[in-house]
Amino acid sequence: MVDGNGTSAGNSHQIVSAAVRATVSCRKLRINPNNEVRPDNYEDLQLDFPNPVYKNLEKYLPPDMLVSNREERVRFMTDIMLSHLPSGERSKAQKHSDYRSKIVSNYQPLHRELYNLVPRLCFVPSFLKAINENTEDSFRSIISEASPGVFVFDMLLPSFCEMMLAEIDNFEKWVAETKFRIMRPNTMNKYGAVLDDFGLDTMLDKLMECFIRPISKVFFNDVGGATLDSHHGFVVEYGKDRDVDLGFHVDDSEVTLNVCLGNQFVGGELFFRGTRCEKHVNTATKSDEIFDYCHVPGQAVLHRGRHRHGARATTSGHRVNMLLWCRSSSFRELQRLQKDFSSWCGECSCEKREEKARTFDAIRKKYVKAVHAPQA
Ligand SMILES: [Fe+2]
Ligand SMILES: [Zn+2]
């Protein structure tokens, strides 16, 4: 972890890491969790890994670490996690951490209140009420399933959308002025920005943990909705001098939250074409899987990352959407051992139904043959 002062801080971090590494070698994590440990909150610190990962790891800390201060605990856990990454990934993680630190230490936010999630400043009252009640009924009262697996609900206040748009403008102005080379959100978008890279990661962690995970636990439990533990948060921009449309694809997420922030625009509809596992990603779409959605500012769409989709051309105006790709490490581990995804893949479920029908037919034929066989 780097504390955000450029090169010298980067160097000092390496010294700290080396010192900690020396202690790590003689201190290990507990084999069994200590369930009496009440997880601390680290979200105010600059973290190299998602906050929930630290919270979960804490119960495995050795007793002497539990009594140390928060910064030391974070350094200890970060070092343990980094030591488990393959060396290529470790240096990639370090480089990315340095990149973020450079931005965070130089960029002056416009609306600091955005960087700590204050629910009443972000969400419409109906959404807040449903989350506070936290039941399937309360979610269903505000969320409509526009098409199987595509959930739509009012989420963000207009004032929050405006603040976010202004913050993104401000960030882009800073990028243009300083000529800082930023990484774009993904391989498909040439415009837009990664919100996590300029300090909004803590706020988005909270958004995932306290708001999106409870909903996903109910509607997307089959793809790890209850165990979402990391995210990639970004904005995409469409219109003149920006990206125009987005081809047919699946997201690198278990659950995707897509909220339109504004502004005035024509077109840009999202088109959905059924959910598929890796093996079946290029199979044909069935007629009941075709669904088009028109963006409304402040309104959210929640869907499985494996739900195939794209965005039609934004023919005029300027459209900005905020995306949160939510991931579950435990679901990804489990998925490697599975072959049947019939609970959510349209093609796997079709194959399973056909297999069942074939088995049933074979049993029926055997039975008919036995009944009609000449008696001895
Ligand atoms: Fe997408
Ligand atoms: Zn499949």
UniProtKB/TrEMBL annotation:
<protein>
    <recommendedName>
        <fullName>Fe2OG dioxygenase domain-containing protein</fullName>
    </recommendedName>
</protein>
<dbReference type="GO" id="GO:0005506">
    <property type="term" value="F:iron ion binding"/>
</dbReference>
<dbReference type="InterPro" id="IPR005123">
    <property type="entry name" value="Oxoglu/Fe-dep_dioxygenase_dom"/>
</dbReference>
<keyword id="KW-0560">Oxidoreductase</keyword>
<keyword id="KW-0223">Dioxygenase</keyword>
<keyword id="KW-0479">Metal-binding</keyword>
<dbReference type="GO" id="GO:0031418">
    <property type="term" value="F:L-ascorbic acid binding"/>
</dbReference>
<dbReference type="InterPro" id="IPR006620">
    <property type="entry name" value="Pro_4_hyd_alph"/>
</dbReference>
<feature type="domain" description="Fe2OG dioxygenase">
    <location>
        <begin position="229"/>
        <end position="328"/>
    </location>
</feature>
<dbReference type="Pfam" id="PF25238">
    <property type="entry name" value="OGFOD2-like"/>
</dbReference>
<dbReference type="GO" id="GO:0016705">
    <property type="term" value="F:oxidoreductase activity, acting on paired donors, with incorporation or reduction of molecular oxygen"/>
</dbReference>
<dbReference type="GO" id="GO:0051213">
    <property type="term" value="F:dioxygenase activity"/>
</dbReference>
<keyword id="KW-0408">Iron</keyword>
